[in-house]
Amino acid sequence: MPDFIIQNVHLDYLIRLTASLICGLCFGIERKLRQHSVGIRTLILICMSSCLLSILSVYMASEFNVKGDPTRIAAGVITGIGFLGAGAIFHYGLNIRGLTTAAIIFTDASVGIACGANLYVPAALVMIFSILTLAIISRVEKKLFPAEKRKNLLLTIANKDYDENYLRETLKSCGFIIHDMDIRYSYEEKRTRLTISVHAPDSLNTNDLTEKLSKFRGIKEVVLTDN
Fold first, then answer.
1. Residues 201-224 pLDDT 10s
2. Which residues contact 70 (CB under 8 A, 6 or more apart)?
3. Could you report the per-residue pLDDT of 90-116, keeping only the tens digit for each?
């Protein structure tokens, strides 16, 4: 850092807090572009407050000559952020959402602490690597693992004789990955009900699915749910 910045402590604090604001802003924009609930204001406030607590930790250690570990405030920040991140994780039907957002909240706080400790290079590197990871790796994941969402496919068939191999091939051609299949046959109604647990791709073409299943002999009903 230049000497005139080091000598002017308030300017130094301004730079640290501004750096944390920019980092929180970048994380917030990334989350909003992906339409997640944790947004720009939340991540800016987390990053800046973490930066402020880091400044406070360093200031108390140097000015008041405190005994003990001066990094306890930073450790407390991480503990508190862990609870906040856990609140971003929730079940949505069969799927779990918010894991990446929780990780971003944790990273956001860590970057804020680094800015508060005047560690701009590590903070900048973490920001760059995090944004690249969120932007690039997600695309790679979708190409390598297109079937991500967990769903239940409910099929009602008018008889108990059906071509299971054709059914599996049909679902596979639509991008489904089959995990489990439960079969229930009603002797009174003379109908078979299949509950198939699958992973479905994000780009699922439901019209294509229903058209292919309509050619399945005896099919009466098709229901695709997240529950």
1. 877 778 888 888 887 777 888 888
2. 57, 58, 60, 61
3. 766 555 677 788 888 888 888 888 888
Q: How far apart are CA 213 and CA 219, in angstroms?
A: 7
Chain-centre distance of CA 17, in angstroms?
Answer: 26
Contact 210, 222 (CB under 8 A): yes
Cα(27)–Cα(78) distance, integer angstroms:
17
How is residue 200 written in tokens?
Answer: 């479905």
pLDDT score of 179 more than 80: yes
pTM equals 0.63
Q: Do β-strands 191-201 and 95-97 pair in parallel, antiparallel, or remain unpaired?
A: unpaired
pLDDT one-digit tens code per residue, 131-153:
888 888 777 767 776 666 788 88
Secondary structure of the chain as H, E, C letters: CCHHHHHCHHHHHHHHHHHHHHHHHHHHHHHHHCCCCCCHHHHHHHHHHHHHHHHHHHHHHHHCCCCCCCCHHHHHHHHHHHHHHHHCCEEECCEEECHHHHHHHHHHHHHHHHHHCCCHHHHHHHHHHHHHHHHHHHHHHHHHCCEEEEEEEEEEECCCCCCHHHHHHHHHHCCCEEEEEEEEEECCCCEEEEEEEEEEECCCCHHHHHHHHHCCCCEEEEEEECC
Closest CA to 50 of 108, 128, 10: 108
Sign of the four-CA dihedral 190, 196, 202, 208:
negative
